[in-house]
Write a structure and sequence with these properties.
- Helices cover 0% and strands 55% of the residues.
- The chain is an all-beta fold.
Length: 117
Amino acid sequence: QVQLVESGGGLVQYGGSLRLSCAASRIIFSIYNMGWYRQAPGKQRELVATITSGGNTNYANSVKGRFTISRDNTKNTVYLQMNSLQPEDTAVYYCNAGNFRLSHDYWGQGTQVTVSS
């Protein structure tokens, strides 16, 4: 069974930083596009950042210049470095692994990020 396990969430003050990690198992990690999404209370889940199997990245406008997504195919892990955190970044952050050709779409269980003002 495919597993995506997020870690690194927590409570941080305004302007602080966190680094999220998502470790994948039981997939050929290198062929999957990876992404981070978030869901705040009462809101829909939204895209934060994605990185393709080839390393191309895409960011939501709200996090451009503050967040960086990266991947390490040797460790089957995708990261989200979050800097200059704001209270509006408070949400549960989810890791996603997708492969369109295989029709695969997997989600992690989420990790809570709370930014205090």
